[in-house]
Design brief:
heterodimer; A: mainly alpha; B: about 375 residues; Peroxisomal Thiolase, Chain A, domain 1; ten-stranded mixed beta sheet; about 30% helix; globular
Chain lengths: ~250, ~375
């Protein structure tokens, strides 16, 4: 519950970001793209509620074992995430220097996030070798393969759709999962740092995303490719989460 | 065929009850004032509301009587004789009797002879279900007029005796008491009625129904607002599975619950449905002159609304209109009570040709319903 004033992590009131966002006028194609992306996100978020492991967060039956399982399965995605994003940066030519800079700085921020996740795993009572030795699950294989394929193409602006989904999920983990998981499992903050961390600077990320969208989404083809990639990534990400409890052997 | 809302009526029982008087009416559970009341009331910002129970928690008006009072006012204001009303559709969360349907009881109370009846069962969106069925009946040319009534008597579920009897409930154990108490300081009683006709009223304003749509997401989400289970994941029994109703009550299976944690999802699905209608070209944000929503705008102080603005489809706050703060949250009856006052208020000028977008979300298991009306003059 809150009394109408929403604070984001770090204590910055949303209102101060509102002003910056209000002055942000997206071009009409970027606006249409954002409408579609919002729906892809909302559908993705809703369908996550049907993933058995995540439904237990909703129902209040999520356990320490569930948390270890989730972290084990997320690690590969986090490691591969830094790879496709740097690949994408190198696929933009000099006419896309601005977006390339943004993506490179984003990759620098996050490319060692998996180390945080490993510490969470140990703090949750897991053995480091179990998380480090975990191979990609079936969904992670599909997601990683798709993202490496798309990011190897010239000027892959459609990957804004991928960032939209993956960043959105990071924000959701911080907003709705981290504290709830601590409450349900009795684990400490040390076990959910990877999740909480993604709530930091969320409004700043959003603003940067708008700027990129406004810059590169300038025709119908751009809208279509960004939205399609967002849809594929949403589906494959959910597949990855559905596959967490299936053994690979 | 076009169908018009040609008359409206509302009934709110008893005097307006101010924030600090609410616990005096519903009663302090086991004599102890609630520690959550102030916090929840501060969040919902409702200043006054009405109850069909008195300070001794005795019922002053039945749900059927409230529905009939709103319906009578609606018929008294209409330019059509009640004999011409061919259909009565009634919505409520909980009628006075579990069976038969509430429409039978309201029909009898109103003395409407030999007409088609419909009772819709649900929570807030049941009013939109009843309205849509009546609208469709007129569109099929089966009737020339239909009366749609929605009435709620939530206070009978919220009075102190309900909580005091639930001695083995999660509420009594303080396990998740926020969920069982949340709606206690939110919901109140009242009824609203709309008359539909196949032509506008000869005088004054009528509202043409342009379209109605609904999207339910029960397939994906757990139940969020309910009566009938004890609220324990491990216990699948519902109220009729207990050996006696008394046991069900002791166990808390008859308490009204809201899983507050899941509540965000109703706003998010509300936005999704709205965007869907925009994308399908059904709703045109620039054409919306007034936005009537069953929730108030401050509930939606969410980042997602900033996203709607950035995407160029936000509805500016000055177009939102509600009477929730003074009439209370009356569940399924809210929108009808809102429409009734909207057409009469001096706060804003309603002009011919203006479009009104109505939104009724139901958190029960995430149903979102939408309607667009156009102001027509006779």
């Amino acid at each position: 519950m809150n009394d109408g004033e929403i604070m984001i992590k770090g204590g910055t009131p949303v209102a101060s970001m509102d002003e910056e966002m209000d002055s942000m006028d997206l071009n009409p194609h970027a606006q249409v793209c954002l409408q579609h992306l919002l729906r892809v996100w909302l559908g993705f978020e809703r369908d996550l509620s049907t993933v058995p492991l995540l439904r237990r967060i909703d129902l209040g039956t999520y356990t320490v074992e569930d948390h270890l399982c989730l972290l084990r399965n997320l690690r590969q995605q986090v490691i591969e995430g830094s790879r496709w994003i740097t690949r994408a940066a190198s696929s933009f030519d000099r006419n896309h220097a601005e977006i390339r800079s943004t993506i490179i700085s984003h990759a620098v921020d996050e490319h060692r996030d998996y180390e945080l996740l490993e510490l969470d795993y140990v703090a949750s009572g897991g053995h480091i070798e179990d998380v480090q030795g975990m191979e990609r699950n079936i969904g992670s294989e599909a997601l990683h393969g798709y993202l490496m394929h798309r990011s190897s193409r010239p000027n892959p602006i459609d990957l804004l759709g991928a960032m939209w989904i993956i960043e959105g999920l990071g924000e959701k983990m911080a907003r709705s999962w981290a504290e709830r998981i601590q409450e349900l499992t009795g684990l400490s903050e040390d076990s959910t740092r990877f999740m909480s961390y993604h709530g930091h600077n969320d409004s700043e990320h959003m603003l940067r995303f708008y700027e990129m969208l406004d810059e590169v989404c300038i025709d119908e083809a751009g809208v279509a490719s960004i939205v399609k990639t967002a849809k594929v990534v949403a589906r494959l990400y959910r597949l990855q989460l559905e596959e967490v409890q299936h053994g690979l052997k | 065929m076009s169908v018009y809302i040609t008359s409206t009526g509302a009934f709110l029982p008893g005097p307006p009850i101010a924030i600090e008087e609410v616990e005096g009416v519903l009663g302090a559970v086991n004599g102890k004032p609630s520690s959550l009341r102030v916090q929840i009331q501060k969040a919902n910002k409702i200043q006054t509301r009405h109850y069909a129970i008195d300070a001794n928690q005795q019922t002053t008006h039945s749900n059927t009587e409230m529905a009939a009072n709103a319906a009578s006012q609606c018929l008294d204001r209409a330019f059509v004789a009640k004999e011409n009303v061919g259909m009565l559709a009634v919505a409520t969360t909980q009628g006075d009797l579990p069976a038969p349907g509430m429409a039978s009881m309201v029909q009898a109370e109103l003395g409407l002879a030999e007409l088609e009846i419909l009772t819709t069962h649900g929570i807030c969106s049941s009013s939109m279900m009843a309205l849509k069925a009546a609208w469709n009946s007129l569109r099929l040319d089966e009737h020339e007029a239909a009366l749609v009534v929605s009435s709620e008597l939530a206070s009978r579920l919220l009075k102190k005796q309900r909580y005091e009897a639930a001695t083995k409930s999660t509420f009594a154990e303080k396990r998740i008491d926020f969920n069982t108490e949340f709606l206690r300081w939110m919901l109140s009683d009242g009824a609203g009625a709309l008359l539909l006709q196949n032509k506008p009223a000869p005088k004054g304003m009528s509202l043409r129904i342009d379209w109605m749509r609904g999207f339910s997401h029960a397939h994906a989400f757990p139940t969020c607002m309910s009566v009938g289970s004890a609220g324990r994941v491990e216990d699948a029994r519902t109220w009729q599975d207990y050996d006696s109703y008394a046991e069900a009550e002791i166990d808390g299976a008859l308490l009204l619950r809201q899983d507050v944690r899941l509540l965000d999802n109703i706003l998010r699905m509300g936005v999704d449905g709205y965007l869907r209608l925009v994308q399908e070209g059904v709703s045109k944000p620039l054409d919306v002159d007034h936005f009537l929503c069953h929730y108030s705008s401050h509930h939606f102080r969410d980042k997602i609304l900033d996203l709607l603005d950035a995407a160029g489809v936000g509805i500016p706050e000055e177009r939102w209109w509600t009477n929730l703060y003074t009439r209370g949250n009356t569940g399924a009856a809210s929108l009808f009570i809102m429409l009734d006052e909207f057409l009469r208020t001096d706060e804003i000028e309603v002009k011919e040709g203006e479009k009104i977008l109505c939104f009724v979300p139901e958190s029960g298991r995430f149903n979102t319903t939408y309607m667009q009306l156009t102001v027509v003059k006779g």
